[in-house]
Structure formats: structure tokens, C-alpha cells
């Protein structure tokens, strides 16, 4: 499958540089960027700049950002959109059972974790070495990049798309690592009621 035109390449330093350059030189220029943490399929987590989607003058939540630049969706028809129900998750309590909400909520975006039955028609993502080393589940593996963004206010079910945005900093890394490790492990163990990455 590595040679398939549907396969997404490993998100190496070289590809990250290409994405950075394309974002910087984009015409028309992006109006605003916010900093997120990328768990790429190659290398350690790193800070990346995520642009506000074209056509928007005001970003009201992480869902208003053009996160597909960093997810790396390949060259299929599915690349122009992403099913947010199965490829994003809002984290507003940590640990999950803590009744005290976080001061800032986090939103995690990822590539679809497609089953074997669908891999013939959907872009296949390479395994994510960093994440898989953190979860250590034999025989199971996470594929593709994971991007974490931070809101300006805590998540509210009625205001999901109006939480505001703030930049991720080094202070967020420990919590971000813990969240990603936990939700990926829960997903790979099949403990979610919905498919793939559904909330």
C-alpha cells in the first residue's frame, strides 16, 4: 500500500517545511494564525501555526481554523472535508471524570481511523510512531497526524463553536500529551460508543 496513489506520505521534516512555506506564501494571504501542537507521523510533537479558514473574518473556535493543512489528508475526494463527528473531540474536563472543568478546553483533530474494509477507497495514513510508542498496545496502531488546539474559554455544549481561541504554549504540553495518549488508547481499545474517533 506504500506505493498507492491514495497513500498519505510520512509527515517528515521536509513535508512540514513545505506546508510552512505554502502557508507563509499563500495568495491571498491568511489573515490570522493560532498555535497548536502537532503529533506528526514522524518526529516528536511540535508547535505549528494553523490559519483561520479563508473567507472568515473572525475565528470563534478551533473549528474555524483550517486544520487540514496539518492533518495531511492525501489526494482523494475526502480531502476537501472532514467528518468532525468522527475526527474531532472536545476536551473540557481532565481527567475525564473530574467535575471541575478546565480553564481552557482543548480540541483534538485527527485523520479518520478507517477500518481495513474501507482502506481501498480512503487515503491510507502511515502509522504515528510517537503516539504508538506512548500507547504500547500490541497489534494495534494509530495512523496519521493528530493536532491539538486550545480554546479561549471552557467548552460549553450550547456554545461549541463560540468558545474563542488561544495559542498553545509550553505550559500546555504536559496536559496535551496526557490527553492524546489517553484518548488514542481508549479509541484503539474500542471503548468509545461511536466509530473511530467519535465523541
Gist of the model:
The chain contains 5 helices and 5 strands, in the order H-E-E-H-H-E-E-H-E-H.
Describe this structure in words.
The chain is an alpha+beta fold. The chain has one domain. The protein contains five helices and five strands. Strands 2-1-5-4-3 form a five-stranded antiparallel beta sheet. Strand 1 and strand 2 (46-51) form a beta hairpin. The longest helix has 16 residues, at 173-188. The model is unreliable at 75-80, 117-121 and 193-199 (pLDDT under 50).
Topology:
Layout (H helix, E strand, L loop, with lengths): L12 H12 L8 E7 L6 E6 L16 H4 L12 H4 E6 L7 E10 L18 H7 L10 E5 L22 H16 L11
Antiparallel strand pairs: 1-2, 1-5, 3-4, 4-5
Flag low-confidence runs. 75-80, 117-121, 193-199
How many runs of DSSP E, i.e. beta strands? Answer: 5
As for the number of domains, it is 1
For the residues shown, what is the average pLDDT?
Answer: 80
Descriptive tags:
199 residues; 5 helices; disordered C terminus
Amino acid at each position: 500500500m506504500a506505493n498507492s496513489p491514495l497513500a498519505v506520505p510520512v509527515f517528515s521534516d521536509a513535508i512540514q517545511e513545505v506546508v510552512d512555506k505554502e502557508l507563509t506564501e499563500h495568495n491571498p494571504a491568511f489573515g490570522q494564525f493560532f498555535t497548536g501542537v502537532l503529533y506528526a507521523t514522524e518526529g516528536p510533537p511540535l508547535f505549528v501555526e494553523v490559519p483561520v479558514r479563508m473567507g472568515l473574518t473572525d475565528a470563534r473556535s478551533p473549528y474555524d481554523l483550517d486544520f487540514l493543512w496539518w492533518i495531511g489528508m492525501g489526494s482523494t475526494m475526502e480531502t476537501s472535508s472532514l467528518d468532525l463527528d468522527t475526527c474531532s473531540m472536545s476536551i473540557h474536563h481532565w481527567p475525564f471524570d473530574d467535575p471541575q472543568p478546565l480553564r481552557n478546553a482543548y480540541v483534538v483533530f485527527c485523520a479518520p481511523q478507517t477500518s481495513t474494509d474501507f482502506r481501498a477507497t480512503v487515503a491510507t495514513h502511515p502509522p504515528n510512531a510517537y503516539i504508538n510508542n506512548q500507547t504500547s498496545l500490541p497489534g494495534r496502531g494509530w495512523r496519521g497526524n493528530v493536532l491539538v488546539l486550545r480554546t479561549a474559554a471552557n467548552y460549553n455544549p450550547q456554545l461549541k463553536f463560540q468558545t474563542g481561541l488561544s495559542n498553545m504554549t509550553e505550559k500546555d504540553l504536559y496536559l496535551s500529551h496526557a490527553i492524546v495518549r489517553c484518548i488514542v488508547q481508549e479509541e484503539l481499545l474500542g471503548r468509545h460508543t461511536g466509530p473511530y474517533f467519535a465523541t
